[in-house]
Write a structure and sequence with these properties.
CATH class of one domain: Alpha Beta
Strand order of the largest sheet: 4-3-5-6-7
Number of helices: 16
CATH topology of one domain: Rossmann fold
Shape: globular
Largest sheet: 5 strands, parallel
Structural class: alpha/beta
CATH architecture of one domain: 3-Layer(aba) Sandwich
Length: about 575
Amino acid sequence: MDTTATDSLRPWIASYPDNIVWDAEIDETPVHEQVLAACARTPDALALDFLGGTTSFGELGKAINAFAGALQSQFGVRKGTRVALMLPNTPFYPIAYFGVLRAGGTVVNCNLLYTVSELSHITANAGAEIMVTLDLKQIFPKAEALLEAGHVKKLIVAHFPNALPTVKKILFKLAKRKDLSHPGQSKFANSITSFGDMIARGETPRPVTIIPREDIAVQQYTGGTTGIPKGALLTHANISANMCQIDKWGDGLFYPPSKVIAVLPFFHIFAMTVCMNTPLANGTPVIMLPRFELKALLGILKRTKANVLPAVPTLLNAVARAESVTPEQLSSLEVAISGGAALPDEVRAAFGKKSKALLAEGYGLTEASPVVCCAALRKPSKPMSIGLPLPGTDIRFVDVDSGKVVGTGENGELQVKGPQVMIGYYENDDASEQAFMDGWLRTGDVGHMDEDGYVFLVDRIKDLIICSGFNVYPRTIEEAMMTHEAVEEVNVIGVPDQYRGEAPVAYVKLREGKSTTEAELKTFLTGKLNKIEMPKQIIFKDALPKTLIGKLSKKELREEYAQTHASKK
């Protein structure tokens, strides 16, 4: 950690909450060692809750060790072996994740919604010969296709009903058998191993010496919204450092009696670190949902009284806008942490009317394991800010054109240094070199810091619209449009314009039962936006494309606009 700079270069330190210090010691103990220590410390305590099916810390520890032992003896997994995980939020995920790390392997997370082509790129690029997956028909055929194509050599398949409590397991087998694949009947059955059988062997894993700052724990592939996904190399020290930073920032929030809701998918780095790693290492239970459904979320809040909800803005918006949701149903929530995308002020206000929970916006990126900044988790922070840099984290803002560091309040590219920052991209020296400037990680996000050290983001560099020579930020337009009572979601992209070079186009989803027109919306925006920021066109849609974690996606809208525009030529 660089402590040569004075506090005057870190104005955020003066704004830190009481009991939190910037230069605190950062724990780099590998996460699997921390979790296994928690399992040994409180073996009878609740670790996992999946739809009412529970796993104690003692049971979790035994399963992790047994899986690690089987990986070593049956598959030869050792330090550096890449093991792909294609699993939804179930008890199988943490067992597999920590088991791979305990065996010395490297986790390669796979997005369940990716196509076989996208998954082929990731598994082939990573050299992941083993994949852990599930026997649900939504998932298994993709894994089988990867096996057939030779992108993976072995599959380890968990039986979904085994994750359920007894009654639900019986009902599932009776009513939803058609949702299950039958790996044993696959023509590749000889290359498929039962997850449950591996655990049942009860093997003890051999010791593996981990060098935290050198050995890779997770090879996390970027979203690929700007090109082919790249594998960010996150060391054991990167992962555990970010956990430690979040833990210190939480000031006890991630310790019992807290209960953390994991509705965001563990294979996404935000959920992996905040919803799984940090609480489990502290002996705190994780309440899992396989996907976001409002009724199910309300059900687990009522049943478990969970108090911490990491979320994305679209999830918070869905909760806040649902007329059926009452403040009483959300009464157990103490803290909601928004990440993954910018949190619109209208969503913050709407959520505040439904819940007394402190709503804190955070910011991070895959390459930083992922959290860089976060609003305080124990007291209100500055509105519209992503908060302050976490302990041990340095940031600066650099002029996009000149590369020079800008002053307080001036917009520039956010750049980061800290123990959570990756060592580079897997087998991609050019991309690794471009990701850094003078040792600082380039985030691609534009914003500024105020005199108190609070960070405010304006937009992504790649989303910046150059209109008649002026910078137009989609987020500015989106924030203005979200203040209209009929607008539920909005996403703004830049499109080619013969006169202005580029122009903004807004895609809008209206609230149920509400209506408006393009002309009415533009009239509403007059005075809120200047002429250059005014959308060239407003397009209404029944639904806007999102990533799996619920982040509004511009990629599909750009493609849709380009295709529509081309067809009209």
